[in-house]
TrEMBL record, chain A:
Residues 578-593 have a biased composition (Polar residues). It comes from Crypturellus soui. Residues 518-545 form a coiled coil. PANTHER family: MYOTUBULARIN-RELATED, MYOTUBULARIN-RELATED PROTEIN 7. This is MTMR7 protein. InterPro entries: MTMR7_PTP, Myotubularin, Myotubularin-like_Pase_dom, PH-GRAM_MTMR6-9, PH-like_dom_sf, Prot-tyrosine_phosphatase-like, Tyr_Pase_AS, Tyr_Pase_cat.
TrEMBL record, chain B:
This is Myotubularin-related protein 9. InterPro entries: Myotubularin (IPR030564), Myotubularin-like_Pase_dom (IPR010569), PH-GRAM_MTMR6-9 (IPR048994), PH-like_dom_sf (IPR011993), Prot-tyrosine_phosphatase-like (IPR029021). Belongs to the protein-tyrosine phosphatase family. Non-receptor class myotubularin subfamily. The gene is Mtmr9_2. It is a peripheral membrane protein. It comes from Crypturellus soui. Its main location: membrane. The keyword Repressor does not apply. It is found in: Cell projection, Ruffle membrane; Cytoplasm, Perinuclear region; Endoplasmic reticulum.
Amino acid sequence: YLFVQVENVRLLDRVSSRKATLGTLYLTATHVIFVENASETRKETWVLHSQISSIEKQATTATGCPLLIRCKNFQVIQLVIPQERDCHDVYISLIRLARPVKYEELYCFSFNPKLDKEERERGWKLVELSAEYNRMGIPNNYWQMSDVNRDYGVCDSYPTEVYVPKSATAHIIVGSSKFRSRRRFPALSYYYKDNNASICRSSQPLSGFSARCLEDEQMLQAIRKANPGSDFLYVVDTRPKLNAMANRAAGKGYENEDNYSNIKFQFIGIENIHVMRSSLQKMLEVCELKSPSMSDFLWGLENSGWLKHIKAIMDAGIFIAKAVAEEGVSVLVHCSDGWDRTAQVCSVASLLLDPYYRTMKGFMVLIEKDWVSFGHKFNHRYGNLDGDPKEISPVIDQFIECVWQLMEQFPCAFEFNERFLIHVQHHIYSCQFGNFLCNSQKERQELKVQERTYSLWAHLWKNRADYLNPLYRSDHSQTQGTLRPQIAPCNFLYKFWSGMYNRFEKGLHPRQSVTDYLMAVKEETQQLEEELEALGERLASLQKVQLNDNKVKSKQQDQNKELGRSTFNISLANTPQEYNNDLKSFPSRSPSQGDEEDSALILTQDNLKSSDPDLSVNSDQESGVEDLSCRSPSVGGCLPSEDSGKDSDEAVFLAV
Amino acid sequence: MEFAELIKTPRVDNVVLHRPFYPAVEGTLCLTGHHLILSSRRQDDAEELWLLHSNIDSIEKRFVGSLGTIIIKCKDLRIIQLDIPGMEECLNIASSIEALSTLDSVTLMYPFFYRPMFEVVEDGWRSFLPEQEFELLSSLTDEWRLSCINKEFSVCPSYPAVVIVPKSVDDEALRKVAAFRHGGRFPVLSYYHKKNGMVMMRSSQPLTGTNGRRCKEDEKLINATLRAGKRGYIIDTRSLNVAQQARAKGGGFEQEAHYPQWRRIHKSIERFNILQESLIKLVEACNDQSHNMDRWLSKLEASNWLTHIKEILTAACLAAQCIDREGASVLVHGTEGTDSTLQVTSLAQIILDPRCRTIRGFESLVVREWLQAGHPFQQRCAQSAYSNSKQKWEAPVFLLFLDCVWQILRQFPCSFEFNEHFLIMLFEHAYASQFGTFLGNNENERSKLKLQTKTLSLWSWVNRPQELNKYKNPLFEANSLVIWPSVAPQSLQLWEGVFLRWNRSSKFLDEAYEEMVTLIEYNKQLKAKVNALRRQLAELETDDGMQENH
């Protein structure tokens, strides 16, 4: 499907307007592809249609018609198309392509990593929630699995297998569900083995100003009693109090402490999806500023309110983790529908409480548990299919950022690295894998997602070597027990994540990556250990042989050179930025040296060799574009660009 | 004067010390001529606080009944609290500390009394001499000479006794140029770029005044540094406006008409009280106990600290770019040439010259471009963030420089031989030290104070192997190339190691650092073992072969 092909398109550099590359633009069924003309490189930029969040056609200038493409993974692409008519064609096509109306149009249904059926099934089985609840110690004397929702009969946005207190009968569950928004009754999210305290989640009660529900009250009592060590239960409403009160007028609202026995009710003001959407929007505008001053940047960041929201989510998670681990009190968390803020807060709390969720596998399980299974509306929030723009909101992005903020504070606590988080974020939007399709388990089942698509977790797991945090050690003190972030005063602990929001502006990032350096050191260490053993054996046998019989001779000539980390001499061109515009107007002279002279011995993740086959897409640049139309989408993997390209300037463009 | 006269109460029992992130400690407080000492009486682990009086920036006292509280704010930004029973004792202690921390005679400072507890292997006072630097230069070019014109400090009181100037300019001409430059600071060599032979010079502003005075010798001197047919850049660290205003006070800038081979670029870098206020506001923001995220960011912004960092780094990058990319020589100056000028010339060298990124090279840079170049440390570092003296000459110029170095280090974590602790150590010693290195405002004053014989050099202490180990960056892999930092706001961060040092626990970050060191050390050990085994094997195999040949 080659829809459009336009020659002589210019791709502008966002940082330096002087730099632009000339090339050809292709639109296929799944990707926007830009191929540079320069014959020796023919650099390619691939962007999945599902990553496109907006397309803007700007006023035609003398040089052509500018087209601005903003992506959900925070890439911004600026093209200048010579002919207005071509630009219009591209624009119209992209609008259609970026807003599919049927799930079948999404990339995961055509993506084929050439795995057989068995491998695919094994991939889907990598993360199993029943095993996870077993790991937590459930079922036990207090908790059990309930099949009350087996045909999604009680709640269509819940999973079929839900975990509830043993004493909660089907009657109580169904009764409670009728008293909760979208029938999302209280169910177990996390159980803390050490002291029986638990985190449960639900939606808001339909209490209005005075309504009560006996079963709902019994349900909460059952949860409290499932933790015999504590005589009360926290009910945490993650909304600002004003929002919750407004809901009462609509017959919804929050729990009245007088009606429920032994609960302590607590508001934690996290703003709603609309506030968060506009906050991100404002922050991205700051990120997009051309050469902003320090004040522009800090003011913009502050006015966006983004870090304040991140802190609110963290504070809620910290509060719950503390209640569970230190006070031994169970917590019921809800917001309005219980699928956005509740998911954020439950998963942050779980991450703080349980070191397992800080491992790579555990993190996958956590997302599967608190987000996928409990009906976080991926399709609506991340705009996979064309829908209501007011439903879109960076809910899981915020959770992912919370994890990053924790990684910054506890550098040894997580098994995975920053790149892992970035790739997870990327694939939540990419629709290359089926994990995050639809709005609920029920919809995914109806769509037969597991039979028709592949699982992201298997893909990431296969390449886990790329995602390891070299500072992680399972016996390190930071990997034990609960994480306790500093609380007061800690505003300064929350920092702008340029690795995510400016991730395609390579020039803004540290030019040498400590993580990659240490990964290389660790890899070499492992090789050295193996070699040491082999050498020891050879030495022993040689000495033995020499003693016994001088005739035996071993030929190993290749071993005589001294060791050195070969992974390090890959260089990345490091070029000066525009420190002054005046320089341009100065009578020019030829540079004294070639530009290559300065390519520093720089380590960034760009240079790390990767085992991920998708990452090699860009090294395969010679492959002609003539046959793009027949190229299987499976080759055009969709990994974020930082894994490829040798040059900071190139990397800005390499999208796929 | 006897210190005893200033110490009204030498010792108080049952004093309680409060520090952030530490449990309170009860003990005996003692005042000596130079230290405030608190020692707990517990035998097991006698907690001790040793604080140099000169490190104290300001103190506050409070009373609740007869219990007095003294809050001590230090130049290294830490704040500690002492609870002292007895109003009289408390008042005595407070006034003693106040007197001892504001001694006005340099010769009463601790460095003149400090006796080292270690053996001096290498005398730091002789570690970095201009003559050595010149010798190095001579091996690369013969276009420069060492001039002793200032050996009596009479031509330029803030210059060292010897300076490097173009060979073609004689001392007589230098005298005339000195008269044409503010404070006698005629253009001297700051840096020679091996790669293309371009140079960076520094000076103070020319005294053109409103009449547009000119000085042929000045023009000749700076032109002498240009290659035939080449042009150069003058980087003026003031805005054009400020530079123009300076003419009314007799200062000014180089007119294009008189310096046709030079192009002037104005890059505004703030000075004096603006910087001091910035530091005060920044530290206030960092110490703010409120829980409001908004207030933090706007306070950080309002301090303008990071704006200054960005301005200074940008100017330095520009200077480096002119030299390395444009293949042009550069002259840098502001007004006096003792502050922003030195920030720019020293940072440009860190960008351009790999030697400056080693420990020794960096020390040499600090000596050359700050101490010998006449940055008035004593004036600038008299007070720090808690000062309320509002003296015009107090300014965190050197701290800003260190912060800029830290920013580059953060962007190129494998290209520096030293780590962050090294920079923090220099910050501390610039403000309060047992060593004489940062005393005085220039070489002239230092020689009058006879620091070389009466005090110990910081370098004598730092450069001992056991001390140096603390400051070595485990990630260091020599990088011989030019490193271009990013000056975008997203790339510049608050230097937490200095500004949040006392406000947050660094336990987890320290653990990560240790983990990193362990990983790298283990790797090195393994490598050594494997190499040894390989050699052993090779020998065995050769022996084997020889035996066979026999």
